[in-house]
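Re: beginner question about structure tokens

> Can someone show what the tokenized structure looks like for a real chain? I only ever see the sequence side.

Sure, here's an example I had lying around. Input first:
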Amino acid sequence: MFIRKRRGWEIPEGAATPEALVFGRRAALKAAGLASIAMPGLARAADFPQSTRNGRYEPGRAITAEREVTTYNNFYEFGTDKGIYRPAQKLPLSPWTVKVDGLVDRPREFSVEDLIKAMPVEERVYRLRCVEAWSMVVPWTGFPLTALLAAVGVQSSAKYVRFETAALPAVMPGLRQSWYPWPYVEGCTIEEAGNDLSFLVVGAYGKPLLAQNGGPIRFHQPWKYGFKAGKSLTRISLVAERPKSFWEAIQPQEYGFWANINPEVPHPRWSQASERVLGTGERVPTQLFNGYGEFVSGLYSGLQRERLWG
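And the corresponding structure tokens:
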């Protein structure tokens, strides 16, 4: 007999925020005076594909209001405060291409439009946990990283995937901070890339991804801290050597390569035991692997000597 065991992060369906409140976002944005700033993608929304939601990875928490997700952002290329959505509007989102190269059989450069047409695009509602101890839940539109890797053919010598973010000094004032190792680089193992949760994001809330959220294309692995997700990607490379990520290069004593979420392993300067839910201010317990352990914990067997957390 099959017995369904409720996962630790699940809540009853009746406890979720009503859909009408979550998705009444245009009215909320207008009331807040943010529609013209936070929602520049509305003009392109009519051309954006409406995708079926994949229900396999239900987050167990209400979707965060769109106005919160689009106005509270980390994107150091535009500045170090959370209000970077204003300067981020200068980022030209089209045309945009992503080069896929390195240890692949068919290296090529894709336009975002071509990727949307060619890849199995769907919607997934994922949790996002920042290392700063705040969190949100976002309905992302995108496709599994595995689909892109299959299109280029990964060679057996490839052990890691390296992600590189755009560096455009004319529109990214943060690049003037020359002490940072620009461009922003992140990476994961080929095994992590092959996990179905690894997702390339091209939209959110049923519309094209906004600049402040990493538009027009970003990466997301929901069991890792948010800084592992490269935004506004321009290059994805398959490599043999482990890439050194942006924050690992700056503060290796605080930020490592793996950055898996573990509430029992604190950041050197603060606890990771709980998180503040964006929009509500509620503080809730943080879950191991952000609640996705059943899908990803097997990736780390035999790696006990690695610094897997933080």
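Each token stands for a local structural state, so reading them left to right follows the chain. The domain at 32-300 is CATH 3.90.420.10 (Sulfite Oxidase; Chain A, domain 2).
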